[in-house]
Amino acid sequence: MIVVNDRLLEGKMTEIEQARAWSPRVISKFETLIRSGDDQALYRVNPLAFARDRAIAEPEAIDLFLYAARCGLFDMSWDVLCPQSGMVLDSFGALRTLQTHYVCGLCDVSGDTDLDDFIEVSFSVSPHLRRLPFHEPQTLSVEDFHWKLRFGNDGRLPGQDVRFLDVLRGFVRGMTFLPPGTTTMLRAELGPGSLSGVNVQTQAAFAVPISGDPVLAPTLLKINYDGKRFLPALPVVPPGPVVIEVTNTGSGRGALLLINWPPELVALTTKPALDFDPYVSGGALLARQTFRHLFRSERVDEKEGLGIRQITFLFTDLKGSTAMYERLGDLNAYALVREHFALVNAAVQQHSGAVVKTIGDAVMAVFSRPSDAISAALHIFEEIDRFNGDHDGPGIILKIGAHCGPSIAVTLNDNLDYFGQTVNVAARVQSLADAGQVCISEALYCAPGVSDLLAGRSVVAFDAPLRGVEGDATVYRIMPG
Question: What one-character-per-residue DSSP string does 86-110 give?
Fold first, then answer.
C-alpha cells in the first residue's frame, strides 16, 4: 500500500509550481511519479531517464528535481559508480563530503574518478513524503539488498545490448547476510576460474583460485570475517562441490555475494568500462545555473578541489567600457552594463550553462557541453543586436572567447569556481577577439557538435601565442553575421 504525506506534497508542489514557468503537464507527471511510481522508481531517480520516458526536455527535468530537492520532497545524492560493474560504491549527501577515490571489491579495482566521469547525481524521494524500503536497508531481503540497493540497472557490456547484471547473475553462487557472532554455511558447485566474495556495503572482498582436478566430495572452505576483511583458510580450491562456512567475528552485520568467475574473465588484467545510459554527472550539475542558485551553500573541499575531465569556459568583455563610463557617467554606464549582464545571464542559462562570476564588466560562464557554449555565444550576439536596435543612444559592444579542457572545481570566496590552465587559456582566447566576434580554441572547434553549429558561418583560423601553451596555437575567429 502506497502512503503519501498529502499535506507535505500539496504545500511543496505549490511552491515548485510558483518557482518558475513549467511546460504543460510537467508538474502533473512529476506528481504521478510520486503517487503511483513503484518503490524502485523513486529511489535514485535519474532525471534524464525521467525526461526521456515522459517526453520532457532534459534541462527542465533536471531543474524540476533540483527544486524538489531544495524544498525537501527529494534527497539529492552524489553517487560514486564503479566503471566496470555499475555498483554504487559510495553515496554522499553533500558536495563538500564527496570523495572521488573508489574501491570496488567485486572488480578488485581502485582509483580516482572525475566529477564528469563516474559521479552520478541522483534523487530519492524523502522518507517524510513517502517511505521506501530502501530508507531502511536493514529490512530488505538479501536479494533486494544486493540487486536493488547497490546496483544500477543500465550498465551494459561495451558495444552490446547486454546488461552486466544479467551476466553477473549467471556467475553468482550464493548471497547471504552474516549476523554478528554467527557462522553461516553456503553450498555451491564450482567450475574452473576463481571464487570471489564481496560485501557490497563495505567492499571487503576475497578471491581464491579454483584449479586442479575436479572432485566429487565437497571441499570445506572456512572463512573468517572480522567486519573489515575476509580471511579464507585455503589458498586454492578444486572444481566441484564446496561448503563455505563464514564466521562473523565482527560487531555488525555483514553481507556476502559469492561469484564464480570463469577463466576468461580471470585472465583479464583490466576489465573494460561499461556503457551507461546518460545520467546527470557531478560536473554537469556544477555547470547548471539552477544548481548554483538553489544550492549556494554547497562547497568543494578547499584543500583539494575536485577534478573535471572536460568542461568549457566562456568569457565575455565589454569593448571600450572605460570610455563608456567617461562618456555617459557612472550611473548611466552602469545601467547599460547591468542590461548587458542580464542578456548574457539569460542566454547562458537558456543554453544549459552557468555564470560563475563577473570580473569588472566581464562575465565568466561555464558549460558541460562544448556545443552549448557556442550556441550561447551566438545567441548572446543576437540578443545584443536586438537590444541595440531597440534602444537609442550608445549600444553594447561585446567580445567573446571560449576554450574547453580539464579543470578543477574549487570554492573561492564562498563561490563555486574553477582553477587551472584551461581557465587561463579561455581568458587569453577572449582577449584575441575584436568587437562583435567570438574567438575559440582549436580544442573547442574540434569538439563534438561545434562544427555543425558553425556551418555556413565565416570562420577564420589564425595562429597566436597562448600563455602556458608552447609555441603558437591555432585560434578560430567567428565573424559577425
Answer: -BEEEEESSGGG---EEEETTTTEE
